[in-house]
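User: Run a structure prediction on this.
Assistant: Running it now.
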Amino acid sequence: MFTKSIKTLFAAALVLSLAACGTNVPRLDDAPVNAYATPVGYKGIRYWGDAELKKLNEASAERLAQLKVAHKADPSIPLDHAYYLAISGGGGDGAYGAGILNGWTRAGTRPKFEVVTGISTGALSAPYAFLGSAYDDELKQIYTTIDDKDVMKKKGPISGVFGSSMTDNSPLKALVAKYVTQDLIDKIAIEHGKGRRLLVGTTNLDAQRPVVWDMTAIAASGNPDRLALFRSVLVASAAIPGVFPPQLIKVTADGKVYEELHVDGGTTTQAFLVSAQNSLKEVDKALNFPRKRSLYIIMNGSFAPQAEKTETKTLAIAARSISTLIKNQSIGDAYRMYAQCQKDGVAFNLTSIPNDFTMKSKSEFDNAYMRALYERGYQAGQTPAAWDKEPPDYDR
């Protein structure tokens, strides 16, 4: 995915090696190494995605108490069985995940997820997956009616090379603003009080680390700029480095204000649930409340190698290498999450674009391709056969 944009990016890199660029703003790398940084006016809305959550038991106890109250008021909210959903990146391939979710609704077997996580295009669809089938129409509309012009605007070669990206993402920002409304995040805030969580991943490029944002906490914060931050995190999660502009997010550390540079969450991981250093089984022991758990992962891409003649030219080789890296990162993430599930006794379920879907996208957001892929996902989502119980080629 994004092969054309990757080629353009590498072309720019050859020139950028001779150019100086930057934003003359105070950046967090000037802050003390151990300073705790947080977005201005917020507390407890994010954490490092690659570190142990030392307060996981405490946070889980709070969520469990909320869930018990919510379950008593509404028995349709599961208590003994926790359902989790992780949605990967993939650009226009996110149409597959949208189709899966809506087909699942049609089958009548889609659970109410306690936790939903999203990366990149998965971050854009995660709020609708989190709120449930009432938002299926919006989810379908987003992934079957847009094309390239609704997501990005190409810059001229000079501004692209000497700026922070090769495209202008103002169309994507407008798209996010259209669908992510105050009403939407108000509904998400209500779910926070019920113990449910919506999490989105970005990458702090300066720190080279994944960041997990609790979008339900942002929505429920009461902060007057919560809608703006909510949208900014979604845009940041989908900001492919060099292709889309990064998001600068203001934070405070040691009483000073800085800016952090956030880009596509897929730069560090394609899908996630909890840090490998934490154990859900240990949480159950600590709370003395064992629960059955099921994880569903939607990988918006194909695991199968896709043969394609690569030109013996620098840019073509670089672009093909990056796309191969992303594919194999997805496989690695599937295995990592499977290992975590095995350790914690969580039922593992994984779906990805079927190997026999061979239609090729003509651009990053080819509408005809996305509509066909959505339909394939919609049909697959209506059958249990869409879900694999092991990562690809596990039994080999």
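Residues 314-344 form the longest helix (31 residues).
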